[in-house]
UniProtKB/TrEMBL annotation:
Transmembrane segments: none annotated. Residues 39-147 form the TRNA-binding domain. This is Phenylalanine--tRNA ligase beta subunit. CDD domains: PheRS_beta_core, tRNA_bind_bactPheRS. It comes from Methyloradius palustris. The lineage of its organism: Bacteria, Pseudomonadati, Pseudomonadota, Betaproteobacteria, Nitrosomonadales.
């Protein structure tokens, strides 16, 4: 919201300068985003009138002007402006004047003395470009200081308002707040109904009563639409960032800025029948004032007559019924549309108008008729015309409910003591009706303050008026105690240290991915869709971290990185049984050679077991692997990772289809684990270190090709032979001497007793039991 300080001070004039006023506004919650002067600093410029202009004898484009500057003596000034002529009034810089960037001195121009300079708006620093002298109206007083005449000692304030303070989207609204903040007197103009001199009127019907709660309008006939907008109004509009269009349109914009009520004027001669406020009809369209033809959606609200839609309610009028210089009668509209009816509609059409900006934030429904009367006064004052009676339809207007503020609650939140009488005074300054009932203030806000609905809103108002800088910053006092750290729960940093120790680099990706990728690569048929995605390729929440890892891999390969190790710890999101689930995962990716290139070891390709070593360590050697298939993984090189018989992740080689999709020359391996499960562990217990040496025995058996090694080892360990400490595979053989569809497995068996040295008999007995267990469960034969 940009406005002129001089315009504001017409209604409230606190005893403070511009800088102090800006600081007071900011400290009261109306942040001054920018404050600047209307014009650059210059002196010695007055209004001059050219009495005669003769051609310079030695220059075709110069004229010798005789200029009256009110001093009683005419000045001779050489001027090269194309519009310099006798009778023209324009700014005249006297000798000794200081203009932006240069000073005026007596000079000779092509041999002719010149005692000053006639000025353009550019030379005064008012505009960046100009085509000639700044022409002033005929009634401008000769000799008057131009800064005074053009009110150039003015400041422009731009407020950065929060959405709840739309009451300050008007000069009157800001004036109310300034009066409340500073205690200065508020002087609002009295707006009385105009004399009705015509009986003609338009009937109004509201069909969409939930969206339009008040609609008023009147006919004004016999107007002179080609009348010129006065300079004072043009100046205020321009300093508020609005360009002049025509007198009638300028009046509606002026009332919008001063009172905050959007208005619209229709050319009454182009209206067919009466006015209806209704929803759009199927396939209905309208050509707006900016000549943009828009197709109207079913949820939009229009102003219509018998011919169809003539305006997009609360946003912009239609081109067909727009006023022009030929307009002789107008229908002036003032309405209250609910914020929900307007919000988002303008942006959907690629529009942003002053009306929609205010309606979607809320306007004062108690100001509808007052704004209509004020605009009528200005139309009659500037364009003439006879005003007809006001036609009005009103629905169930919003009710400003009383809000109770407890004095004890106020002091508890602010932490300072404010007397009850002072609180009542603050509410009075704000224009709130207030009753003090034994320390409970029952406050009814006015119609223009619809942001007041709960007790905390009133606390904020008191804090604003009391002054945030008058509320001391008291540091809180609290006892700090160290929380006990459970030994059963590890920190995520533990996982990071393991991954980094294995040569992996951590990355951080967005939690948003492309829906197609989520469905196809990860097999997620119910991705969580975002209502407002930041990009088309980030439309759903990720259910796995693999997509981000693959995108990062491609990014690195495109930059000639031949060996890549990546990991990420982050959240993944799923929808299970209509309930949202969030899970912290650690995912990794390995690509390229198994080890960095070096002279002492030949280069070899990465394989499944290289990456399995990482998941083993991450799982604390507690995890197990179960052959399973995943849509992102190679069918023959993928495994589900189990912990305590519960699936906690995946490990495998990227599926050839996706390797081709990402154009990866070499095989890529990935893993993903539930980080929460990994970080939970059992406490370690002490076991006595044996004093007696261990015994190693080797056991070679022949089993069917489809028997898993892990199943054989698990069977031997589950036999629970006390002296058997460990069983490990050290050889697998297929070939000569071994039948087809068979394989030879060789295991080392470590045995030890903490109380004595094992004998050969005891060791043989243990080995016999092991062999019996795998014979029974897997059909193993001793080799």
């Amino acid at each position: 919201m940009q406005f002129s300080e001089q315009w504001l001070r017409q209604f409230v004039n606190p005893a403070m300068d511009s800088d102090a006023l800006g600081h007071a506004l900011t400290m009261a919650g109306l942040e001054v985003e920018e404050q600047k002067s209307v014009a650059a600093v210059f002196t010695g410029v007055v209004i001059g009138q050219i009495l005669s202009a003769e051609k310079h004898p030695d220059a075709d484009r110069l004229q010798i002007c005789r200029v009256d500057v009110g001093s009683g003596e005419l000045l001779q000034i050489v001027c090269g402006a194309s519009n310099a002529r006798a009778g023209l009034k324009a700014p005249c810089a006297l000798v000794g004047a200081a203009l932006p960037g240069f000073n005026i001195k007596q000079a000779k121009v092509r041999g002719v003395e010149s005692f000053g300079m006639m000025c353009s708006s550019k030379e005064l620093g008012l505009t960046e470009e100009s085509t000639g002298l700044l022409e002033l109206p005929a009634d401008a007083q000769v000799g008057m200081d131009i800064r005074q005449f053009l009110a150039l000692d003015d400041q422009l304030f731009t407020l950065k308002l929060t959405p709840n303070r739309s009451d300050c989207l008007s000069i009157i609204g800001i004036a109310r707040d300034v009066a409340a903040i500073t205690g200065a007197a508020l002087s609002l103009p009295a707006i009385n109904p105009v004399a009705v001199t015509s009986t003609n009127k338009k009937s109004i019907a509201i069909e969409q009563t939930s969206d339009c709660l008040r609609y008023a309008g009147r006919l004004i006939e016999g107007v002179n639409a080609s009348a010129q907008t006065p300079d004072w109004m043009l100046r205020r509009l321009e300093r508020s960032g609005i360009r002049s269009i025509s007198t009638i349109v300028d009046i509606t914009n002026y009332v919008l800025l001063e009172l905050g009520q959007p208005l619209h004027a229709f050319d009454a001669a182009k209206l067919q029948g009466d006015i209806r406020v209704r929803a759009t009809k199927p396939a209905e369209s309208i050509v707006l004032l900016n000549q943009q033809e828009v197709k109207l959606d079913a949820d939009m609200l229009v102003i219509a007559d018998d011919s169809g839609a003539i305006a997009l309610a609360g946003i912009m009028g239609g081109a067909f019924t727009a006023v022009s210089d030929a307009t002789q009668s107008i229908f002036l509209e003032s309405a209250f549309f609910t914020p929900d009816a307007i919000a988002g509609k303008a942006r959907r059409l690629g529009l942003s108008t002053d009306s929609s900006y205010r309606f979607e934030r809320g306007v004062d429904y108690g100001n509808t008729l007052q704004a209509l009367e004020y605009a009528t006064q200005l139309v009659q004052q500037l364009c003439g015309g006879q005003a007809g009676p006001v036609s009005e339809v009103t629905g169930a207007l919003p009710v400003r409910k009383a809000v109770t503020l407890r004095h004890s609650k106020l002091q508890s939140i602010l932490g300072i003591a404010i007397s009850e009488s002072q609180v009542a005074q603050y509410f009075s300054q704000l224009g709130f009706f207030c009753e003090n009932k034994a320390g409970n203030f029952v406050v009814t806000p006015p119609s223009y303050r619809f942001d007041i609905s709960i007790e905390e809103d009133l606390v904020e108002e008191i804090a604003r008026l009391h002054g945030y800088d008058h509320i001391p910053a008291i540091a809180p006092e609290a006892a700090l105690t160290m929380l006990s750290a459970s030994e059963n729960q590890l920190k995520p940093a533990w996982l990071r240290h393991i991954a980094v120790a294995h040569g992996y680099q951590e990355i951080v990706n967005y939690s948003f991915v492309e829906e197609q990728t989520e469905r196809e690569i990860l097999g997620n048929t119910k991705p969580i869709k975002l209502k407002n995605p930041i990009a088309s390729n980030m439309s759903v929440m990720r259910s796995s971290l693999w997509v981000g890892l693959l995108d990062t891999l491609v990014y690195n390969l495109n930059r000639k990185q031949a060996r890549v190790r990546l990991f990420e710890i982050g959240s993944a999101y799923t929808l299970d049984a209509d309930a949202y689930q969030e899970k912290m995962l650690i995912s990794g990716l390995a690509y390229g050679a198994a080890s960095p290139e070096q002279w002492a070891e030949p280069t070899r390709e990465l394989d499944f077991f290289d990456i399995k070593t990482v998941t083993d360590v991450l799982g604390g050697l507690r995890v197990e692997y179960k052959a399973a298939q995943h849509p992102a993984l190679h069918p023959g090189q993928s495994a589900q990772i189990m912990l305590n018989n519960k699936a906690i992740g995946w490990l495998g080689k990227l599926h050839p289809k996706w390797q081709q999709h990402y154009q990866l020359p070499l095989a890529t391996f990935v893993f993903e684990l539930d980080a929460t499960a990994l970080l939970s562990r059992q406490l370690q217990t002490f076991t006595e270190v044996a004093k007696f040496p261990p015994i190693r025995r080797d056991l070679a058996v022949i089993v069917d090709e489809n028997i898993e090694v892990k199943a054989v080892i698990d069977t031997m360990l589950s036999a629970h032979i006390p002296v058997v400490n460990d069983v490990r595979l050290f050889d697998v053989y297929r070939g000569k001497g071994i039948a087809e569809n068979k394989k030879s497995l060789a295991f080392l068996v470590l045995m030890q007793d903490t109380q004595k040295t094992l004998t050969d008999v005891e060791a043989d007995e243990a080995m016999s039991k092991l062999l019996d267990s795998i014979k029974k469960n897997h059909g193993a034969e001793l080799r």
